[in-house]
Amino acid sequence: MNSSVIKSSNGEHNLANYESSASEFDWSQVEKQFSWYNTGKVNIAYEAIDRHAESGNKDKIALYYSDAKRDEKYSYQEMKEASDKAGRVLQDIGVSKGDRVFIFMPRSPELYFALLGTLKLGAIAGPLFEAFMEGAVKDRLEDSGAKVLVTTPELVGRVPVDELPELQKLVLVGENIEEDEQKVDFLTRFQQASPSLDIEWVDREDGMILHYTSGSTGKPKGVLHVHNAMIQHYQTAKWVLDLKDEDVYWCTADPGWVTGTSYGIFAPWLAGVTNVIRGGRFSPDDWYQTLERYKVTVWYSAPTAFRMLMGAGDELLKKYDLSSLRHVLSVGEPLNPEVIRWGMDAMNHRIHDTWWMTETGAMLICNYPSMDIKPGSMGKPIPGVEAAIVDDEGKVLPPNSMGNLAIKKGWPSMMKTIWNRPEKFNSYFLGGDWYVSGDSAYMDEEGYFWFQGRIDDVIMTAGERVGPFEIESKLLEHPAVAEAGVIGKPDEVRGEIIKAFISLRDGYEENEELQEEIRSFVKKELAGHAAPREIEFRDSLPKTRSGKIMRRVLKAWELDLPTGDLSTMEK
Ligand code: 6R9
Q: What is its EC number (predicted)?
């Protein structure tokens, strides 16, 4: 099943002792690292930032930020003060414990100040990816009952304020903002704010961050994480990211997605390292330059990015000095063996795959430095995590059987609930104890896990998780569309691309202009990355008797596969 094994490169933490018995590890050992261990009262922003500023690391660089226009750095002390000031601005407009403060803006230092300031007040931060359009923004603000939105003058037009009765304040980060009942000028208030703040000490199970993510049915769901997740953010920063004091770390994910918060904010700062944030869009030149310029030592990215870098050619790579790199990791989609081989040949680095989800809050199955890599495998569960392949009844299957990838309840960074929908939360569990991921996989005799696919219809395109239902619902709002079914179509670079099958209403003609119009409709209303790259018109779509579009049949059409059991199909 696996042709080659790449030998371990050994990290600081040799986890080999734990491999035979994951349950041997006791997470409460990790808690003792934190100042709250004795009091039980906690705040993740304090542990990530203030603690380092107070313990002799105040001048250490916490953040290097750059984009096309800005080039800045902040020490831990400066981050502490900036997040205190942002907290003050939010406190002054009435934010307090438990409130939802959403942040909808491109990466910038202010985004990070505002997010940390929100957490210091004990409020719940909700990051929104900057590419979201009006419909997507509205759904998320409405469901969460957000009280405050931090955004920019450029993006505020996408916020349908009149339709969001619970939204009280719009905090605008930009120049020359005129304040009114609702609008708040962030930068002016920030400059005047006092750089000190009384932190709200909360319980470890209190809400911290709300990430909206997609399943195969229904609207996007709000996954709530709590302060306690820091235990696992911290420990995986040590074990898996292999972070040490002197490291310069770069996670390329945007904080609109969970990787950009758990591993773009919390893990590196809890570990007290120097964190690099690069704004703007992906380009191979820009990324290599970023690695070179900051002498990045640990780099966490995604298969689509690696494939694009691979496609840009080794000549380009050779122009840069990447000798600072020590450890490279990947998440979000299957990491092809071919990409691992490219990593070895072109960069002389093993790329370490890691598996986890928005719901799980932190890494669960990984290739950590002290273990041998089997290219194509996601690795093994980290200590303290028990994973298995179970059948649909929750029965554990023997090695090499395909089934549901499931995790035994009880890891520290597990989501607390699905916002507003506790019944949805319960639906993740089988037999009480197994969290079922929605991925199918198998485990080999040596305990390595191999990803096979999604069991539901969730699409992973360029590392982003997109629910077909949200796109289908949007498509149906277009006047020409009678029925729509959306699937992921395999793609060499992006993993999958979004393909829509559409049947038209009477009076509309199938042509390219209409395709383009429908595509830009989704782009404008939802987000660029949610717009179908391919649209195919059909006279009718396959449906169950209850009227559900059978995406499985659409997929089979696309891949020229047998359509399987059609007994529930409408005749
Ligand atoms: C962190 C994150 C979760 C889904 C997950 C799976 C896919 C993530 C993977 C992987 C193969 C890996 N996924 N890591 N598939 N190999 N190493 O990506 O969270 O956006 O919620 O996506 O991503 O299908 O179920 P999220």
A: 6.2.1.1
